[in-house]
Amino acid sequence: MNITLDHVVHFIAETPQNIVDTFQNKGIHAVAGGSHQSWGTYNSLLYTASSYIEFFAIEHDEIAAESDNPLVKHLREKIKKKEGIGQICFRTNNINNLQQHLHNQNLKTLPIFDGSRVRDDGKRIQWKMLFIEETDPSIPFPFFIEWAENDDIRLAELKNSGFIHPTLENSYIELIQWPVPDYKQAARSLSPLFQEKMVINDAMQITQITAGKTKIQLFSEDGQESLIKECKIKISPPLKNGPLYVNGVVYE
What we know:
By secondary structure, this protein is an alpha+beta fold. 21% of the residues lie in helices and 37% in strands.
């Protein structure tokens, strides 16, 4: 399976605009996203060249409570405990073929979801989402997205509209460090997806997945030998004026 990182979902309890202000006060270009009207959620965004961070929050809880979208359900459950990385999303250009591939790996999936949001500039963005049926809620599976526009058109439009800033248009997400209850269980759960892209480091109590240029490290939060105690996202080249602690995650 071809793995391309699309975005990291950072669950937040405050308004997405506050996150934009936090980054912009440090000279880092983050932008308002928009509202997912049928989900009761909204977001803000920090773009690199081909992937981004989504700061995802509840806008109207009465609508979010009725949503059948697994990401919204996960947000409502987790945000009661703490903010931080919620899930990781990979991009595909054929979500139907991907669903069949996952079934061939004996992974059950939910029906494909249609998604959309209205950007602050009025443009409606559309996509499809695919979720794997969870077997261990403490170690969330990634989910998958197929955008309505192809990558070249979509990224060019994001640059022309000022969402991808010139200072970040050659950047990429180099490292994601994410605490999980059990790094070995994480490896067992995710091995059907990543197989040869996965390495287990028992000395550091880390399961590492390589997806293109990005390394994803899942580590045992309470492991005695774990040297990492918090979520971290490292961008290359490093962010201007970083590192920056934002709502449960260190950005650098």
